[in-house]
Amino acid sequence: SPVGQISSKLLDYQISSPTTTVTTANNPSLNTSSILSTLTMQQHAMPPNDPMNTDNHNGSSSLYFYNHQYLGQNYDMNETNNIPEILTKLIESDQAYRCTEVRYIEDIQQIHIDLTRDDGDILVVCSLLDKLCFLMVDWARQSLYFKDIQIDNQIKLLKAAWIEILIIDLIWKQCQQPKETCVNCIVSANGQLLNINQIQNPAVKKLAERYLQCVNDFRQLQWQYPEYLALKYLVLFDPDVQGVTESSLIEEVQEKITNALGEYTTDHNNTSSTSNTSSTQSQVPTNEQEKFACILLKLPDVRLVGNDLKKLLQLIDRKHDGKLLDGCLLGEMLNGLQSNN
């Protein structure tokens, strides 16, 4: 099976492909082929005595995943002065998050992508993206505001936003690395540096170059953790997603976060025109209002990268007769739920 292909491909790393057992005994209306439906209906909180709830690593535990591995090293989590109340709540929600899919984090840490291979190690890349989808859903279902939305609407929002959220996460992670340590490199979720000059496929290399341009643009903005977090929420809470039935509530959340982000950039603009001497210096915002606009104007670029990546994955899937990603959360996100008939 396609999932078996991915699992076989990863035997060298002793990594299994993510799978989810779907139980319909208590919910006969649940489509048994929907991994995403199952994930969103799982309990949000672990039992208090669950050993996974205990942080034994002084804040470096992989249980945090997003808010520690993707957190700027110099960010003081206790520093909330002059931060709008809405952003403070988002930060508190993010810090309260505990990953319930730790096994996938451990798998991700072991993955090694070999760009010199003719196929670009595509099965390994697909497995990596699949695991990241699980972790992204795990984060979203525990997040402020999102967990209060109806399950059907949660699914629609996640299917619309998943690729952009993953890209924003990876861009943020790379921006935390010194620029000189990752020239012409993409920083993978596990910290592996992927030199784009090793990519053989021209289309893939062009996509990688466009992604790195997004990274450089965000570096110039010198965006901060609250801004990164707000951007993810703005992408997730899109009232224009087709079929959502709580568009007014979603739009209200989006408006609150947008206003809070604008207020934050006014009070916390560290961008300085003297800090960048490159040929693109003119793109660096010179005041608070301009930074706020620049952050929002980067979203279309992120969406373009996401669309190109989805097209590439769909093309690869078609080359495998549309069966490569069957039974995977990545395939469900990418192509939508396929009929059982």
UniProtKB/TrEMBL annotation:
Domain annotation NR LBD: ranges: 82-335
Entry-linked Pfam families: Hormone_recep (PF00104)
GO molecular function: nuclear receptor activity; RNA polymerase II cis-regulatory region sequence-specific DNA binding
SMART domains: HOLI
Biased amino acid composition, Low complexity: 267-282
GO cellular component, one term: RNA polymerase II transcription regulator complex
Keyword terms of this UniProt record: Receptor, Transcription, Transcription regulation
Principal localisation: nucleus
InterPro entries the UniProt entry points to: NHR-like_dom_sf, NR5-like, Nucl_hrmn_rcpt_lig-bd, Nuclear_hrmn_rcpt
Ranges where the record places region Disordered: 264-285
Superkingdom in the source lineage: Eukaryota
Name the UniProt record assigns to this protein: NR LBD domain-containing protein
